[in-house]
Amino acid sequence: MPELPEVETVVRGLQTRLVGEVVAEVCVRWPRIIATPAADRFERELCGRQIIQVTRRGKFVVMALEPSKSLLVHLRMTGQLLWAEPITTAGAPEPPDGDVHRHVFIRFASGATLSFRDQRKFGRLYLVDDPQDVLGGLGDEPLAASFTPQVLGALLRPHRRRIKPLLLEQRILAGLGNIYVDEALWEASIHPLRQAHTLSDVEAERLHAAIRLVLQRAIDNRGTTLRDYCDLQGQPGRNQEYLAVRNREGEACYRCGQAIERAVVGGRGTYYCPRCQSV
DNA sequence: ACACCCTCCTGGAGGC
DNA sequence: TGCCTCCAGGAGGGTG
User: Fold this and answer.
1) What gap in Å lies between CA A1 and CA A228, rounded to an integer?
2) Which residue's alpha carbon is at the shortest distance from the C1' of B7?
3) For the segment A218-264, what is each residue's pLDDT rounded down to a tens digit?
4) Of A133, A122, A114, A143, which is closest to residue A228 (Cα–Cα)?
5) Which of A26, A123, A167, A183 has fewest C-beta within 10 Å?
């Protein structure tokens, strides 16, 4: 599933291709993919606008448009943004069709096409005047300079909740998902069921470093591909080779050799080492 | 405040 | 081989 590193990889790819492009044609095949406005208005109001800037906020792709609107994309579970260069061959099918999972096509004046593909149709696109309407509730960016161990400590202290579901909460910390929370907790030797407010300053510091390490390494590896994730060109990431616990049930912990266990925490499959992640 | 449930979806896995 | 049921999971909503 796309989390912060996967979205960051997609955004970096879009930055080099999309800025300056002008939308020529929009086609929505599955209207419910468009969160706002209604799909027909989305098609009309996106046309003619130019992409000024592409950034990331949490797991959202944020495209600033001129005249002033913002196009936001959330990939959720299986969403993909795919880029196709202009098709020069006369008579070639355009936009690329025959793929029932491609739900939105955006064709640019240059002839290039950006399409949104999503097997499970959980992903959402938003066309809004003010991106804060969608992004306003998001918590801290874990890779921002302002996110310090002290900030993390202050975020955790008020909560008696279990640490894992809390870290998945986007209004607390924006960008972590099921994979990287498990990886960060293993890296920091903290049990997923640990109550957030019981973390010591030293543990908060360890968790802070672990979150940053795990996310940065995944960005350097262009994301984790367990099943569906791919970049703009359809290429998988390499970070799956660096996972310590995810999908390693029964295999030896890289730190202590104990068998990795799987449990369900907050309804999510959770992988951890029962020996070196203390409750 | 927090745990738990449901909904949205569909491919893949497991049971028989 | 084939059919059927179950399941994962991000986020938002509701309930206890």
Assistant:
1) 7
2) A122
3) 999 999 998 889 999 999 999 999 999 999 999 999 999 999 999 99
4) A122
5) A26
| Contact call for residues A117 and A28 (beta carbons, < 8 A) | no
| Interaxial angle between packed helices A149-156 and A201-220, expressed in degrees from 0 to 180 and rounded to the nearest 10 | 110
Residues 6+ apart with CB under 8 A from A232: A10, A13, A14, A17, A81, A82, A83
| SS3 assignment, position A270 | strand
Note if A2 is an active site residue: yes
Per residue in A66-78, pLDDT (tens digit) is 999 999 999 999 9
DSSP for A27-78 reads EESSGGGEEES-HHHHHHHHTT-EEEEEEEETTEEEEEEETTEEEEEE-TTT
Q: Residue A206 CA to C8 C1' — how many Å?
A: 30
- Cα separations in angstroms, A93 against A86, A88, A89, A106: 11, 11, 9, 15
Q: How far is the CA of A36 from the C1' of B3 (A)?
A: 31
Side chain identity at residue A112, one-letter code: A
Q: Kindly provide the b/e burial profile for residues A61-71, where b requires at least 16 CB atoms within 10 angstroms of the residue's own CB.
A: bbbbbeeebbb
